[in-house]
Protein: Co-chaperone protein HscB homolog
Organism: Zestomonas insulae
Amino acid sequence: MGSPCHFALFELQPGFRLDLQQLAVRYRELAKAVHPDRFADASEREQRLALEQSARLNEAYQTLKSAPRRALYLLAIRGRELPLEATVQDPEFLLQQMHWREELEDLQDSADLEGVAAFKRRLKSAQEALDEGFAACWDEPARREEAERLVRRMQFLDKLVHEVRALEERLDD
């Protein structure tokens, strides 16, 4: 896991709900302080430490700003890591995934930019619902399986949103 914990780097309590703008502001402040360029005239050891701190800060920021990565990280610091590409033992969600994939293929075939925008809004709302569900249960040992199921769903949706953005860019060109 590497210490200190990602949340501690930003002086935050571990939790799922974060103010992402506040996180970004704090990241920029910290990044300036440890930027390797500031240590250009320092000893080799100080330069190496600055580089390590900068890398650790970047990793922490990338993890905390992404809802699925933050969720996985929270579960990990609670003592249970999920395999990154776990199969979803979740027939209802598997069916939903198939529908979304088919819809994405149809949108791609028809090059329907408005349809893509509407699809993206529906995915965003599905992501928000998952985020809320995870926020409500991640720290309750009795609801651990539910939290893990939600993280897997979050990972899938995150990947799908990236694919939709890529399609949008292709259609926009």
Remarks:
- The chain has two domains: 6-65, 91-172.
- The first helix runs from residue 6 to 9.
- The radius of gyration is 19 Å.
- The chain has a mean pLDDT of 89.
